[in-house]
Amino acid sequence: MSEKTKILTVAGKGGVGKTSIAAAMVRILTEEYPDARILAIDADPAIGLTTALGVEPTDTLDGIRKKIVNSVEDGRPREAIEMLNEARFRIFDTMLEEEKFSFLAIGRPEAAGCYCKVNAYLKEVISLLAADFDYVVIDGEAGIEQINRRVMEKVTHLFLITDPSRKGCQVADTIKQVADELVMYDRCGVIVNRVREESIPYIKVESADILTYIPDDRAHAENDIMGISVFDLPEDSPVMQGTREALTRMQIID
Ligand SMILES: Nc1ncnc2c1ncn2[C@@H]1O[C@H](COP(=O)(O)OP(=O)(O)OP(=O)(O)O)[C@@H](O)[C@H]1O
Ligand SMILES: [Mg+2]
Fold this sequence. Notes:
Elements: E1 6-12, H1 18-32, E2 38-42, H2 49-52, H3 61-74, H4 80-94, E3 96-97, E4 102-105, H5 112-130, E5 135-139, H6 145-148, E6 157-162, H7 166-182, E7 187-193, E8 210-214, H8 218-226, H9 238-249
Parallel strand pairs: 1-5, 1-6, 2-4, 2-5, 6-7, 7-8
Antiparallel strand pairs: 3-4
The chain binds adenosine-5'-triphosphate and magnesium ion.
Adenosine-5'-triphosphate binds near residues 48, 221 and 239.
């Protein structure tokens, strides 16, 4: 299909709608490109995309990592390449073959030190798996850490998500500055979420173009409370419409 895998990610301040929008992206891609190979990655240890997409993964990247580390500690140390191959194998095993997309969750490392390791692992996994998919959508954790650690290095389409708050916009600008150094993206744009019409003139994101403004979405907020997935949102709901517009402007869909 596509000559190059498109790797999409959302980044921004906490609680601005990254997971909601990433989930909407996955849904839209499955609808627009039913024959494409699509991978959704929940890269937030706090776990969000899993619920938003209504999936229940059996194992996580952190789980796989632990098993591989243990098997090395138990027996003979192995060559890095052998490790990576095994990881790839296990990741495919873990991946939930949903009807329309595959899914991988980073998991929740218990010890603080493991967190960097699983992030480093995630970075390799993104490179490793990208070739097997046409579209990869990554729901990252809040803030700048995963950009800073180059976990998102291979991302091709970077969506900066913010709410109308100054703080949210500043975080988006900061992430853009760091991403300019550390992410090899082709396109970058801003989505302003949960915004009222009258606030629009005051919104200042200077680092990148604003792709769309998404108003408050009652149906989405209610679905979220009840744990209903984004696949049950009305097609014309603000989150779906806004995400569609953003994907169009980033030339992901027509
Ligand atoms: N346009 C919207 N209208 C109404 N509610 C929204 C909208 N977008 C997101 N929400 C709600 O805001 C809350 C935060 O959204 P979401 O979890 O998508 O943000 P996030 O950026 O992923 O948060 P975190 O940084 O904690 O991962 C959720 O309860 C979600 O349902
Ligand atoms: Mg989230």
